[in-house]
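Risk register update: the risk of archive-format incompatibility is retired. Evidence:
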Amino acid sequence: MSKIDRRRFFAGATTVALAACSRGTAGEPAESTRAVDPSAPPAEPGIVRIASVRTAVEGNLLPALIERFEHASAYRVRLSTGEKVYDLARSGSVDLVVSHYGHKDAEAFVVDGLGEWPRTIFSNQMALLGPPSDPAGVRGLEDLAEAFRRIAENRSRFILNDLDGVRYLTEILWHAVGEPDRSGWLIDAGASKDAAIVRASELGAYVLWGLTPFLRLDGSQHLALEPLVLADPMLQRMLVSIIVKPGAIRRVNSVGASAFQTFLLEPQTQAAIRTIRYPGKTLVSWVPAGRHNRIAILPKG
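Archived output:
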């Protein structure tokens, strides 16, 4: 079985195992409710179980880094992906989580004492997408607020991608350019994610969205949109790693998780992050973010 096939098998196996644990059997408590000895060694000390949000997997970054880690160490990795990564972590089904810093479940997971302090590892970027004709003339700008000002002044259509983080950024931009009248150009139709991108493509409008999910969607259906503004730091989306703490129902491989996190923060790994591209694309997708951590915990090289 190839390395890629093995990872897919393990990812599926983790999901099936978690579902089975939650069901249990008649007259027997579900596996997730049974107390375990958190100080006991993990059942498979040579395996590191990682749960990641889709962005880092679809963008090819995490699979590429895992391959490097497996080559450089004695560990093997089981990778699960999805949005409910902290459900897997709470049940003890994974040893380390990779998610956006602002993931809706990240703060509660750490505050509840279930995970170690988040370590910033890399960021990917959002993009201001727009029609190839670029009626507002924003292509290549490095100032996102200036691009938004031009869109507003030209009254070019702008679709609000109705996600909390994107709506928040849009509000910052609207205030930054003097709170112009929204009528007629800033369209808030309640569409989000792929639906907002498809709508913008249909209307020849501008829209904000993550570069990785846009490239994935554009690969499955041709969109009349292009990434036009990428360089503004406001477009960076920080991702973190969180090591799962052992606990009453969590028998985790803390040593293996720590080894992988340290690997991610190694200077040579951080340098490699800059070179990894979305499959078939040359756009820069990933920026190393290890330097944002407390310096004392960073590897020396």
